[in-house]
Specification:
Elements (H helix, E strand, L loop, with lengths): L5 E7 L3 H12 L4 E4 L15 E2 L11 H17 L4 E9 L7 H13 L10 E4 L15 E10 L1 H14 L3 E3 L2 E9 L2 E8 L5 E11 L5 H5 L12 E12 L7 E5 L5 E7 L3 E5 L3 E2 L11 H12 L13 E10 L13 E6 L9 E6 L5 H11 L1 H4 L22 H11 L5 H11 L3 H5 L11 E3 L2 E2 H11 L4 H8 L8 H22 L1
Parallel strand pairs: 1-2, 1-10, 2-7, 4-12, 10-18
Antiparallel strand pairs: 3-6, 4-6, 5-6, 8-9, 9-10, 11-14, 11-15, 11-16, 12-13, 13-14, 17-18, 19-20
Helix pairs in contact: 1-4, 1-7, 9-10
Length: 511
């Protein structure tokens, strides 16, 4: 990349907001570059509760505009990515500590109708004393409500936005950290450092977007000529635990804890249940975010109030934590802080001053709308660009119907008869119609190369390296797939060693 090249738009941050902005901008004909200090979705965007939802609990705080925006987006995103997003029914057991049943039903009526729902089914009242849905719960729960939202593979959502951005001409630079940025006349000069090699390069751009998530204010600190206002973000840590499957059916549960916080119990990766999240103000390092012993106990104790056979601390097979950069609205409790996004510009178009757009807050559900709003806000500097286009555009691999996963899985098994049903379904859920690129012209298992365990083949690993910027075993096991839950220590280390050898071979060939 030549130093003389001037990009229209430079984006710092490879989370869902940064990749969404890069994709939208590239699709409008802008020359875009995105820099991410680690792997795509390595921070907050792979540590969500993995839901595309309106946020039922935000109705309690009268955030009707946010809920409506998110509810509309549920079905937009479902149609854009039916491989990585699918409908999920949520069960809300009623008990005397909650609002009266009639009031909850009214709230769910609003939830059903506020966003113009067309695909997802509406709310139903449940008798929890009979049937599989009430069976795992304590006998005290006799009545409940069931409503719709969607599940998402959050890390793959980020990666697919980056894949589409690159296909439309964007440069995606992973493991390139912004170390400084300053204005030169009407341009930004951005210095990035490759975190593997230590090599530095300068990037020139007309517009700079700071979508660094929890690091957004750290990035601002590298800019000597940017106006600094009061602290805008509140760092809130959300932690989750994964335990062996607590129930056999395909519904999720939404519960309210005694302290007023909401948590979920969600079917996860076939054999597990995901429980979370917590909401705790985060004070420590952003480089090593992990769940605390207190948070593990909190989630287990909370689940024990609802389930007959509930998880204990020793049952936790995996946990993860992410720090959400919520806009600081002065709310006293972390779980009450707004999840809506705020976009702030530093720069003056009339003075021909190169703009900096800082992104604060946001939900994974509304990332696409955030990207549209960001580009609209930058309009005075970008000039005449293409129109909004992402609302009806599928993400890579998502060009099939919302109920077409089984049909596509059967097609995979027909073309590749050596692929069994569970394997085919996993691949379709991850890659959609791009599964044909992964398996290619294979006629047998041997054609897919080395098997690393749990259906992870050399062919898939090479695809992820060459098309999705995977560099390490963790990139593949915990972000591009969730097979880290299933591969043992030896298999994970063997994958890591194979990838290191592959990269060395590629470097040697390039030289």
């Amino acid at each position: 990349m030549s130093q003389e090249r001037i990009y229209d738009l430079a984006v710092i941050g490879g989370g869902v907001n940064g990749c969404g902005i890069a994709r939208d901008g590239a699709g409008r004909g802008l020359d875009v570059v995105l820099c991410e200090q680690g792997d795509l979705a390595q921070g907050t965007s792979s540590a969500s509760t993995k839901l595309i939802h309106g946020g039922l609990r935000y109705l309690e705080y009268y955030e009707f505009a946010l809920v409506r925006k998110a509810l509309i987006e549920r079905e937009v995103l479902l149609q854009a990515a039916p491989h990585i997003i699918h409908p999920l029914r949520f069960v809300l057991p009623h008990h005397k500590a909650l609002r009266p049943a009639w009031l909850l039903r009214l709230g769910l009526f609003l939830y059903d109708h506020l966003g113009g729902r067309k695909i997802l089914p509406g709310t139903e009242v449940l008798d929890l004393t009979h049937g599989a849905i009430g069976e795992p719960l304590q006998n005290t729960f006799r009545k409940g409500f069931e409503y719709s939202d969607c599940w998402v593979d959050d890390a793959r959502l980020v990666v697919l936005n980056a894949v589409d951005a690159a296909a439309r001409g964007a440069d995606i630079l992973v493991r390139n950290k912004c170390v400084s940025a300053h204005r030169e006349a009407n341009l930004w000069s951005i210095m990035v450092e490759n975190t593997d090699s230590g090599q530095r390069r300068e990037i020139l751009a007309r517009v700079l977007v700071n979508a660094a998530g929890p690091w957004v204010e750290d990035v601002i600190e590298t800019m000597p000529d940017v106006h600094r206002e009061r602290k805008h973000i509140r760092l809130v840590r959300g932690s989750h635990i994964v335990v062996p499957r607590l129930f056999e059916h395909d519904r999720a549960y939404i519960f309210q804890n005694e302290d007023g916080r909401i948590f979920f119990a969600i079917p996860y990766e076939r054999a597990f249940t995901l429980i979370g999240t917590t909401d705790e103000d985060h004070q420590g390092s952003l480089d090593t975010v992990s769940i605390t012993d207190e948070e593990v106990k909190y989630l287990c104790t909370a689940a024990q109030r609802y389930f007959q056979v509930a998880p204990k601390v020793e049952d936790v097979v995996w946990s993860y934590s992410g720090v959400r950069p919520l806009f600081d609205d002065g709310t006293s409790a972390a779980h009450q802080a707004t999840r809506d996004y705020v976009l702030k510009i530093d720069g003056d178009a009339a003075l021909h001053q190169a703009p900096l757009l800082n992104v604060f807050g946001g939900k994974i559900t509304t990332y696409r709308k955030l990207a549209e709003a960001a580009l609209a806000k930058l309009g005075p500097w970008l000039g005449k660009v293409g129109q909004e286009w992402t609302q009806k555009a599928p993400l890579p691999g998502g060009d099939f119907s919302v109920d077409g996963v089984n049909e596509l899985s059967l097609a995979v098994q027909h073309k590749y008869p050596f692929i069994e049903a569970g394997w085919a379904n996993r691949m379709v859920r991850a890659y959609g119609t791009r599964v044909w690129q992964v398996f290619g012209a294979a006629h047998s298992l041997d054609d897919l190369g080395e098997m690393f365990g749990e259906t992870l083949t050399e062919a898939e690993v090479v695809y992820l390296i060459e098309h999705e910027w995977a560099r390490t075993a963790d990139d593949i096991l915990w972000r591009r797939t969730k097979l880290g839950l299933r591969l043992d220590t030896y298999e994970r280390s063997r994958l890591g060693a194979w990838m290191r050898t592959y990269h060395m071979r590629q470097q040697h060939t390039a030289v």
